[in-house]
Amino acid sequence: MESALWTALTIGGAYLLGHLLNLIASGRLTRWVGLTQGKWDDVLVRTLTARIPLWSVLAGAWVSLGYWPISGRWLQLVSLTIYALGVLSVTKAAAAVAAGLVVAYGTRSAPGATVSALTQNVVRLVVITFGLLVVLNAMGVEIRPMLAALGVGGLAVALAMQETLSNLFAGLFITMSGQIRIGDFVKMDPGLEGRVVDFNWRSTLLEVATGTAVVPNIKLAQAIVTNHSLPTPEVNAPVDFVVGYASDAQAVEALVLAVARDVQRSGEGAVTTFEPNVRFISFGDVGLRGTVQLRARSHPDQQLVKHVFIRRLHAAFQAQGIEIPTIIPPKSNT
Question: For the whole prediction, is pTM greater than 0.70?
Answer without folding.
Answer: no
